[in-house]
Specification:
about 25% helix, six-stranded antiparallel β-sheet, about 160 residues, Alpha-Beta Plaits, alpha+beta, 4 helices
């Protein structure tokens, strides 16, 4: 499976964060990604903690003929279309698209796979465990469900109403 995380905590030209994520999913599907599964949308505090607005997050499983480099380039182009400007790390943003995993591929060159911090983040693991609970992290050998269950109690993300 190929997994992509979506997040936003600033509005874009299409509207508030949730509308931006929904529009980004349409773009991914138009440009070579077949969406196989989508989590609910979640609200999460910014990491690291700051006075930024909370994020709206989701995870999707996709299928694509694009290789990891091509897929990451596509995700970055879509971010730019929605107003993403990479200024400083962890800045507020209208769209963040992260390639979490590309099948069982393990890479220590760009794009890093699996995503090096995915196992530490509730806003990734909770939606991932929702759509692929038995998916196994290729390095840690734990399932998405096990990784989510192992999160510290103060690491949280809550599902948003449909």
């Amino acid at each position: 499976m190929i997994f992509v995380a979506l997040g936003a905590n600033e509005p874009s030209a299409v509207g508030p964060p949730r509308a931006t994520l929904e529009a980004a999913l349409v773009q991914i599907a138009r440009e070579g990604g077949i969406i196989k599964a989508q989590s609910r949308f979640y609200a999460s505090a910014p990491v690291p903690a700051s006075d930024q607005p909370w994020f709206v997050n989701a995870v999707v499983a996709i299928d694509t003929l694009l290789d990891p480099e091509e897929l990451l380039a596509l995700l970055h182009r879509i971010e730019v279309r929605f107003g993403r400007v990479r200024r400083e790390r962890n800045a507020a943003r209208p769209l963040d698209l992260d390639l979490l995993a590309y099948h069982d591929l393990v890479r220590d060159t760009a794009p890093l796979l699996p995503h090096p911090r995915m196992h530490e983040r509730a806003f990734v693991l909770l939606p991932l465990a929702e759509i692929a609970p038995a998916w196994r992290h290729p390095l840690l050998k734990a399932t998405a469900r096990e990784l989510a269950a192992g999160l510290p109690a103060d690491h949280g993300a809550k599902p948003l109403p449909v």
